[in-house]
Amino acid sequence: MLSPARFRQGEVHEQAHRLGRGHPRRDARPRPGRRTPTGQRLHCHRHCARHSTGGTLSPERTQALADKLAALTPAGQPTTTELLKQKLGVDDNPLSELVDQVINPADYTCTASTPVRDWLVASRADWTPQDVALVNAIRSWDPIFYDAVLWPQDAGSQFGANGQFTTATTHTFRDLRNFWDIHGADIKLVPMHGSMLLDRPRLVRLFAEGYGLPVALANEFADEIATAMNQEKFDFGNHPFFTFNAFAFAGQNIPGFTVIPAEILMGDGILAAYQALGYDDVTAQAILAHEYGHHVQFQRGLFQTTLTGPEAARRIELMADSFASYFLTHARGDALQWKRIQEFDQVFFQLGDCSFTAGSHHGTPNQRLRASEWGYGVARTAANQGHILPSLAFAGLFDRQLPTLVAPDAN
Ligand SMILES: [Zn+2]
User: Fold this and answer.
1) pLDDT at position 56, please?
2) What ranges does the record give for the region Disordered, renumbered to this chain (predicted)?
3) Cα 195 to middle of ligand 1, angstroms
């Protein structure tokens, strides 16, 4: 059952034809710090490393750290991460699932090629099996995500690994606060940066206070993780696998543990992926508008529905898509070109097609496109282009439209 305390994700998707349009795929180019055949040093293009002094860890040391992290949880027991997840009321994350599929393809039957999937696959092309084991072990702790959730005040105010999305993100957030009739000032906008993985004090705090490990052990892991991540092949922590995420969190008081404010978390990795595919002009805006839509739902009690299970979840996601496109294209919202939003949606909504077909948990790509298109239509066809519908009125229209949006479309 959904609860307002749960995280919501910006889901992701693909579209094959984008690849042919000449948008450079970043991983097709040489890596940061490498030299061209003529010996000229290249500017870093994927994620500029803050720490470019990292050495190389031997496969043996890499595997040893992976094993040590994995050994913390005996098989068959809930992991420390699972326990924290339960405490915070965090849902499983379909975006993580996509990254899982890319890292561990043998575990999944889905091999659909999509631009985002292909980009992610290319981004780990130089990893050894030991590297994969280590990344799996670290991702199972999801340190960047939990650090951002628990200590949002320390996450900084820059968006994108190089701050390249800061303006788009903060301006869109300001516009969203002005647009929708909720208490936007109460919502914190929090970046998720890979650099956290090199930050020993933050790693220690997370392992000790977040996961409850003994301080000595927390220090040990912090040292080893920071050393291991300080390698070029992990983009010095900024590898997109660690922050391929966006979330809305309603805020939660967890007695005896902490108070978490209402938050939107924006990962550098998901922004980088869509930037690489040529969508940097709309990516941050669209993802943020969707997540903000969840905050409208939290504050307006829009989770109330007679639907249950996957159908209830799908309604929530499709409604957030509608909220997003209404805001993004509205004259008093971001006033972005619908055609551009639509192109982005094509790629974004198809990313998780494996999980979508499994349970239609978040709506199929077609349903999501229809929901987005409908939201745009409400803005475009309004008699008074300067009028913003109250959020509850918009949601009411959406609920009346929902059966049409989810109608079978196989033929
Ligand atoms: Zn969502």
Assistant:
1) 87
2) 1-43
3) 26
Residue 72 lies in a domain: yes
pTM over 0.90: no
Could you tell me the distance, in angstroms and rounded to a whole number, from the CA of residue 213 to the centre of ligand 1?
32
pLDDT tens-digit series, residues 189-222? 999 999 999 999 999 999 999 888 999 999 999 9
Q: Is 42 a member of any domain?
A: no
Q: Is residue 46 part of a domain?
A: no
Distance 382 CA to ligand 1 centre (A): 26
Phi, psi (degrees; rounded to nearest 5) at 142 = 45, 55
Backbone phi and psi for residue 264, each to the nearest 5 degrees, phi listed first: -120, 125
- The answer to whether 181 and 295 are in contact (CB under 8 A) is no
User: What's residue 77's pLDDT?
Assistant: 63
* Per-residue b or e along 190-220, where b marks 16 or more CB atoms closer than 10 Å to that residue's CB: bbbbbbbbbbbebbbbbbbebbebeeeebbe
Cα(51) to centroid of ligand 1, in Å? 34
CA of 320 to the centre of ligand 1 (A): 6
Cα-to-centroid distance, 295 and ligand 1 (Å): 10
Tell me how far the alpha carbon of residue 32 lies from the centroid of ligand 1, in angstroms: 33
If you write DSSP's letter for every residue of 63-85 in order, what string do you get?
Answer: HHHHHHHHHTS-TTSPPHHHHHH
Length reported for the chain: 411
What's the gap in Å between 321 CA and the centre of ligand 1?
Answer: 8
Please report where in the chains the tokens 């999305």 appear, as a residue.
165
User: Does residue 227 lie in a domain region?
Assistant: yes
**What is the span of the domain harbouring residue 253?**
8-23+53-405
The Å distance, Cα 11 to ligand 1 centre, comes to: 6
167 C-alpha to center of ligand 1: Å? 23
Would you give the DSSP letter of residue 90? P
CA 104 to centroid of ligand 1, rounded, Å? 25
Q: What is the pLDDT of residue 408?
A: 79
